[in-house]
Amino acid sequence: MTPASTTAPTRGYTATKDQLQTRLRRVEGQVRGIQNMVDEDRYCIDVLTQISAIQAALDKVALGLLDDHVRHCVKEATAEGRSDEMTTEMMSAIGRLMRRG
């Protein structure tokens, strides 16, 4: 038997992982802030405004991940002759991101 690999695979976002983690921690803090707003019975529109800000922040994270995916994963798959498969997968992911509410 061969031992399991101990190194994680290289992903498209590997180079920007620290920046991605920072953004996600910021979003996490915003969500906690909304929980506090609800606990404090804050005005509905203020809570909705914060939810909108979180959605925008998550959209920015998602677009960054898509950009990294195209520049790394799709580029690599194209070199290997798997561009149709990766394009279908990516378009499916974009479709899921666009469906809301």
List the helices and strands and how they pair.
Elements lengths: L16 H23 L4 H36 L3 H16 L3
Protein name: Metal-sensitive transcriptional regulator
Family: Belongs to the CsoR family.
Pfam families: Trns_repr_metal
Task: Write a structural description.
- The chain is mainly alpha-helical and 101 residues long.
- The chain has a single domain, classed as Metal-sensitive repressor, helix protomer (Methane Monooxygenase Hydroxylase, Chain G, domain 1).
- It is 74% helix and 0% strand.
- The chain is built from 3 helices and no strands.
- It has helices at residues 17-39, 44-79, 83-98.
- Helix 2 packs antiparallel against helix 3.
- The chain is elongated.
- The chain starts with 16 loop residues before the first helix and ends with a helix.
- The model has no long low-confidence stretch (mean pLDDT 88).
Summarize the structure.
The protein is an all-alpha fold and 101 residues long. Helix content is 74%, strand content 0%.
Separation, N- and C-terminal Cα atoms: 49 Å
What top-tier CATH class fits best? Mainly Alpha
Which residues form runs of ≥5 with pLDDT under 50?
Answer: none
Query: Based on CA inertia axes, which overall geometry fits?
Result: elongated
Protein name: Metal-sensitive transcriptional regulator
InterPro entries: Metal_Tscrpt_repr, Metal_Tscrpt_repr_sf
Pfam families: Trns_repr_metal (PF02583)
Keywords: Copper
